[in-house]
């Protein structure tokens, strides 16, 4: 077991491209970060920003035939992409596991919740099925499913959306993963249920000292859960920092624009400061900064080459030519 | 407005004081597949909903899944036949012999759907999709195509670029602009926006919201804006209607609802809003559990199974809507001093 | 109502260039698929050779000759040999293709029209009408197709027309079912509701919004039935329920040549090989078409 100072996860130069009908889509164009044990990182971005692809790339879940993946992903010091598939299968679920947006699609409809959790435990830890079922009951209680004993015998379709997501979380936690990946876990849920699930995730993360990478498009979800936030645009981290830094003093014009175009508080009667245009076409990314065509501060340097990472202080990065100068903070 | 004249505007009948739309006791129960014995189970999707919309205002409708907000929209458009209730449009009752025909209603009232892709026919060009409705109402193809061009310009899309395109070639935001344009093609007075911006990226959502505000001003429209996003509803609405399990929980001016929410459910919804500040995170979830199923909803007050104030009276009797003044109406025993709820006097 | 009289394609003339339509895109994808193109070419050759059998056949397909029975492939004047009655195989295969294709394709086309219509009507209007139509189809569907075809053919008596009627009845239920499924799916999409919300009548909606979206998948399914139909038709003839001797038809030829399998195996398998080739080409072409039609539009 490596000591606690080595990062749990270290990603460098990650690139992913897909072959599509219309050409090669560059989904991830160089993502680098490290994650400590027990840390919560939010990947914040809009559709096509590459946040979900990043998550799947970490778990080596991308279809290998259609995608080209570059860079290295070190989990506990082991390179995920050089491991044999058998070893990777053991890693998935045990060291690293995932919660999806739509639990109905991720859970197996023909087995009861209890069976699915117990089976995962048996497969990874080789304990008896009866022991595994006892653990499954503990897990369901842990994710605060009422009358857990009864729910053990429930099929996914018999549960409400919130309960299913709790069951999904229980399944993901079944083998005490060191890293939990969560892909928009509350997007499909109602507001009152979303809050319950976010609080549950926060509580479990603290209790188990588990690292979490949470993918979301919602600044509110990031604000409620993240230690650090990485803002993604066109397959790159355009801004990285603590939740406080990113949300209170955004340095990249895209982050600032995203904040001012998100309706919050009382903005009645004022026109919203929308970002013009639409997210870029991943099959035809501009040579320079991908945000430049929509950016109010774009200058000649922006369109020449992608701006390099500018580190404002340790752990605080913005990928913008103006990053040293002050960008007006969001309202 | 120049070339939209090919379809005459709908005249105003009752003057500004008469509500543009008033809905009384609207009801829709869907049959559900159930047990072979006993009474046939029904989902009480919309169960006696009444409200009105004044001319020129935006009525926001909020609620969680299964509360019946989308069913209400489809009932208003008569895409689903209601089981009961009246719909009166500018003084004319819909569907009666002397009143407004369905065809005429649909000329006056249009709808924008959430899924921008599913709401455009993939085999028609944008121009054809926009020209369809005017042609149905007797406008010639040439004029309808000209209307389509006008409409595209109005929603901020260049007609030269977009007329001959197919829906899959457009981004989500562009498609939703086309859907808005289509809803305006018949020069309606009321537009129902059913989660019309919910599927869009935040940066695009803001553009479309700005467009909606601008169009409303230019074309003198009235909106029913259905959304689960409380912030967006706050931004765009004049009055807000809160629905829970097929019933109206609370309705009133936006300042009253957001400033002094009276129904425990409305308050819970507000406290479930995500904080935008990492230093002020939400500490506790306001409600436990999911919204119950509209099949066999709870007796009495439907919210009582999740309500922190629920007592015996809530299970026995359904609360009567009480006017708290200024058109702020709430259906909760807490606000009815005659209800017998032990905490009622503190509120009334 | 003026719109009802308008054509379904709505060829509005925009000022700008029009994007390529759906079928153009499907055509482009098909052309990039060598297997499908090869199958289509082969099918075209088979169809053309059947259509122009009179011109291509070197001999009279009905002229028997007792001395020239069962000659092997490569015999002078009989490039594909002769059958058990000394008739020229090549000529008989060409004429037989004509009959086999008619018996294979006509029932599918008939069923496409009848079953497709029933399915679309059931899917669009739903409710009791749907129940009535689809339950009737289910009753027919409950019989295995071969058994049903043989039973109906047997009841009606042998002959080309009766065989076609029998096969049509066999193919109506699957086509109606597929048409109903696709129609119900499209019917539930928001653009159909949007069209209803614009005040359009059912016929206009079916014509402009429904048909262009449902015909493709129904057609693809029908094309995959052609191979089954050719095999079933040959089977009926083989059993003596389809075409009657001395008519040339592949299934019937297979039957009459089956005793010659030990004498001239290569000649005897020729009709079977053609049935196989035609049906596999139909299947592969149908698969290719399905893939090409998955283009997102």
From TrEMBL, chain A:
GO terms for molecular function: ATP binding. It holds the Pfam family ABC_tran. Keywords: ATP-binding, Cell membrane, Membrane, Nucleotide-binding, Transport. Its main location: membrane. Residues 9-259 form the ABC transporter domain. It comes from the Bacteria. It is found in: Cell inner membrane. Transmembrane segments: none annotated. It is a peripheral membrane protein. SUPFAM superfamilies: P-loop containing nucleoside triphosphate hydrolases. The keyword Repeat does not apply. Belongs to the ABC transporter superfamily. This is ABC transporter ATP-binding protein. The lineage of its organism: Bacteria, Pseudomonadati, Pseudomonadota, Alphaproteobacteria, Rhodospirillales.
UniProtKB/TrEMBL annotation, chain B:
The keyword Membrane applies. It catalyses: glutathione(out) + ATP + H2O = glutathione(in) + ADP + phosphate + H(+). It is a peripheral membrane protein. It comes from the Bacteria. GO terms for molecular function: ATP binding. Belongs to the ABC transporter superfamily. Glutathione importer (TC 3.A.1.5.11) family. The complex is composed of two ATP-binding proteins (GsiA), two transmembrane proteins (GsiC and GsiD) and a solute-binding protein (GsiB). Part of the ABC transporter complex GsiABCD involved in glutathione import. Responsible for energy coupling to the transport system. PANTHER family: GLUTATHIONE IMPORT ATP-BINDING PROTEIN GSIA (PTHR43776:SF15), TRANSPORT ATP-BINDING PROTEIN (PTHR43776). This is Glutathione import ATP-binding protein GsiA. It comes from Azospirillum isscasi.
UniProtKB/TrEMBL annotation, chain C:
Residues 97-286 form the ABC transmembrane type-1 domain. The keyword Cell membrane applies. Belongs to the binding-protein-dependent transport system permease family. CDD domains: TM_PBP2. The chain crosses the membrane at residues 101-127, 139-172, 218-241, 262-286. It is found in: Cell membrane. Pfam families: BPD_transp_1 (PF00528), OppC_N (PF12911). It is a multi-pass membrane protein. Keywords: Cell membrane, Membrane, Transmembrane, Transmembrane helix, Transport. The keyword Nuclease does not apply. It comes from Azospirillum isscasi. This is ABC transporter permease.
